[in-house]
């Protein structure tokens, strides 16, 4: 039974790693040049601090997920996984939220602030951002589930009343 649990956990950690690396690569390669009323407009993830934060946070979580895939089951480092899972979940959630807010403003604009939507001019860029956000959302959901599972496995022995 223990081997089945470890195998399922490995699969979910691999899926979280795959979603995080996909989101990072898609966001980091998002770039498009367009002309808007005779002015060249370059849309890139590094033009926005929120999108840059998304790439950095998901890069950190990707490295963490990769390292956990090769951590031996008998290692004492597994005791710290709950704490680092909390940090990883907070990173992916906060960076996803920030990137989603910027993507929404890019798509809809903000008439109160006088910001025009840019997705009509750089549609490929916006589609790439949307793809990164979909992969980022999947990573966020999986990391939240892994965090809950980690908390359950650590706290379950502590809650047994004899």
From TrEMBL:
One of its GO terms (cellular component) is plasma membrane. The keyword Transmembrane helix applies. The chain crosses the membrane at residues 52-71, 78-105, 129-149. Residues 3-141 form the Casparian strip membrane protein domain. It holds the Pfam family CASP_dom. NCBIfam families: A_tha_TIGR01569 (TIGR01569). PANTHER family: CASP-LIKE PROTEIN 1U1. This is CASP-like protein. The lineage of its organism: Eukaryota, Viridiplantae, Streptophyta, Embryophyta, Tracheophyta.
């Amino acid at each position: 039974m223990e081997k089945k649990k470890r195998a399922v956990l490995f699969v979910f950690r691999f899926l979280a790693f795959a979603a995080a690396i996909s989101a990072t690569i898609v966001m980091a390669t998002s770039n498009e040049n367009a002309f808007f009323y005779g002015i060249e407009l370059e849309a890139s993830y590094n033009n926005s601090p929120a999108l840059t934060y998304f790439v950095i946070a998901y890069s950190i979580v990707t490295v963490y997920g990769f390292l956990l895939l090769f951590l031996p089951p008998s290692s004492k480092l597994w005791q710290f996984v709950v704490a680092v899972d909390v940090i990883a979940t907070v990173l992916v959630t906060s960076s996803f939220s920030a990137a989603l807010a910027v993507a929404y403003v890019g798509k809809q604009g903000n008439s109160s602030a006088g910001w025009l939507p840019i997705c009509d001019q750089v549609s490929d860029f916006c589609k790439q951002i949307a793809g990164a956000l979909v992969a980022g959302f999947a990573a966020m959901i999986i990391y939240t589930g892994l965090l809950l599972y980690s908390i359950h496995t650590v706290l379950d022995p502590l809650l047994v009343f004899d």
